[in-house]
Amino acid sequence: MDTLKIDENPLDLAEKILKDIKSSEGMGLLKCIQCGMCTSMCPGARNSDYNPRDMIERVLEGDETIIEDENIWNCFYCYTCHSICPVGNSACEVNQILRQMAINKGIANDKVRPFTGFIDVMMDLGLGKIPSIFHDDLTRDIGEEWKEKNLHLDEIREELGLKPLSMPKESIKEIRSLLKLTKLDKRVEKINE
Amino acid sequence: MRNIPDKNVMLFKSCLVSGEYPGVESSTKYVFDKVGIEYIADDRQSCCTGLGHYSDVYDQFSTTVIGGRNFNIAKKTNHAKIAMMCSTCYAIHKKVAKLLNNNEKVREDVNNVYEEANLSEMKYEEGSIDSSNNIFHVIELLYNKKDEIGKNIKIDLSKFRIATHHACHYCKIQYEDAIKGFRDPTILDDLIKSCGVETVGWYDHKRATCGAGFRQRFVNRDLSMKVTSDKLLSLNEEKIDILVHMCPNCQMQFDRYQPFIGKELNIDFNIFHLNIVQLIAFLMGADPYKVMGIQTHTVPIEPLIEKVK
Lengths: 193, 309
Hints:
- Chain A: One of its GO terms (cellular component) is plasma membrane.
- Chain A: Its EC number is 1.8.98.1.
- Chain A: Belongs to the HdrC family.
- Chain A: One of its GO terms (molecular function) is CoB--CoM heterodisulfide reductase activity.
- The complex is a heterodimer.
- Chain A folds into two domains: 12-107, Alpha-helical ferredoxin (Fumarate Reductase Iron-sulfur Protein, Chain B, domain 2, Orthogonal Bundle); 111-192, no CATH class.
- Chain A has 13 helices and no strands.
- Chain A has helices at residues 12-19, 37-40, 43-47, 52-60, 80-84, 91-104, 109-112, 117-125, 135-142, 144-151, 153-159, 169-181, 184-192.
- Chain A is globular.
- The N and C termini of chain A lie far apart (50 Å).
- By secondary structure, chain B is of the alpha/beta class.
- Chain B folds into two domains: 9-138, Glutathione S-transferase Yfyf (Class Pi), Chain A, domain 2 (Up-down Bundle); 153-308, Rossmann fold.
- Chain B contains 17 helices and seven strands.
- Chain B has helices spanning 15-19, 22-35, 50-53, 60-76, 87-102, 104-116, 131-134, 138-143, 146-151, 168-171, 187-193, 215-219, 221-237, 248-265, 276-283, 288-292, 302-308, and strands at residues 9-12, 39-40, 81-84, 135-137, 162-164, 242-245, 272-275.
- In chain B, helix 2 (22-35) packs across helix 15, helix 5 (87-102) packs across helix 6 and helix 13 crosses helix 14.
- Chain B is globular and about 60 Å long.
- The N and C termini of chain B lie far apart (40 Å).
- Chains A and B meet through helix 3, helix 5, helix 6, helix 8 and helix 9 of A and helix 1, helix 2, helix 3, helix 4 and helix 5 of B.
């Protein structure tokens, strides 16, 4: 007869996820009945090997290798699964938390490094802008007109009766000091290592 | 049903509106003025973090600290009814409000950050911003004024086939707040109806994401384009002339990449992409370049305007 291991709790991972700051109150992770509705409507699952039902199953089995699974990076964060789950689970939120776990373990720096530009712009201007690292790709796919639009944005805004994009210096200073206190700058440094 | 405000509104500036489709902001202001919505916009307001947040580079705590700062601006200007032009700004702030109200530990930690930064005036008081009653999408304010909108319409679009794209971050995250359904969302269809035009209503893929997928558009382009093209093909089959949007990220995905996808698939997609506020402003007689801002679009809107003349 197999011996039952009673000192291991397979729900450790699920409970850790439920306690995460990103987890919605009352999320029905432990109620998942593996119906697969999430996977049936998922744009990532339709076009890649990502499978939210399988991801939840592995979480409930306490299989921590899911954190290293490449496929979790194919979720679109569209929340379709979240909006249709019959037991109020959110594969989308679980996915976001697993990705954060991967980042915290230092195994996902390559995945998120391209996006640190969003934080640079926030620290510099208090605004969000598509990071310049992507501009060549976008210009190639969309056309030169897109680049032209960026160059003339302030003039176009003026034509529309809108002020140039800028925040008061004092506000930018506030943003910068707040995000340093949340240690976001340290997080970015680690990602860029 | 939530109480939809028409005064004390802070129009929340969106980075993708500001940088990609500034005409959405000028059109919103134009329509707000026409239908009598009292609002301010405040330069001190920052980005919501959304694009970076959903690309996983922000942690939820940093996003919450930034959100609380924006709430403070809305409260101290006595314009605590916050209206979003972008569905991700909308979802981000609802999440922040829920965390600040329901999670004592997070609220304390956030307030400690404000104190340490010598910004004690920003300290968040439990319940001062309610996810359902303080945070809105611009289209909800307009839905509440649909009779007023109807009275101001000067152009008839009934010869066109119009479909709607309801943004995921409006109707799939805090779906309990979506005022006209989330399984078959109709708020855009109803708004267009108030302009005297019927949309095609339900179509295959109506509920599907635009395909931007945050990181996917930038680092997983083929996957992103496949999802967008599935929806475009479905719209093409329905012979849609105009797709109406409510989120600058979705609008960007379809407007910017439609020609690219068309070339890849060797299909001539002839679908115009307009935000609902651009469409309403247009039907009210607004100037295409001084209000609608069609000069920043990739799929030209001029042929549509020509057809209407």
